[in-house]
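Handout, page 2. Input:
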Amino acid sequence: KIGKNFNVWGKVRFLIDGDGTIEIGNRFHAVSSRNRSYATIFSPCHLTSVHGGKIILGDHVGLNGNTLVSWKKIKIGDDTMIGPNTIIQDSDGHSTSPHERWSSSPEPKEIVIEKNCWIGMNCIIMKGITIGENTIIGAGSVVVKDCEKNSVYAGNPAVKIKDLNI
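Output:
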């Protein structure tokens, strides 16, 4: 399901494996073309729902060569921009146990990115994370813990580096 007035440069890959859903709000922007993605190694946008996973993008969400993979739920709020090459995945994909790594998957955990966020390029957002509204995640960050609203986080692992006076 996709809303009205969207702009897509290039081809976006939508994959639904099973009963999952992908919902996209109005004024969606996706850069998925070598001719439009200026500050990145080319990577098209991939939105994948696995075995019942849900991806919900609010109004005026912008993607740029991003990969979103959901086994449970990824929700991105209105007016959020996500920089090139960022990966958002609500599951680890494989067990940490060497005996179960090939045969089982850990429990997925929902990801929520609230409204008016800016996720910089080359970030990784791990399962079970909530990023509060009006928050910026610096380029190259790996987010493994929740992020407060009206803040800037950066690093690996991402830590709060300042408050925003919003």
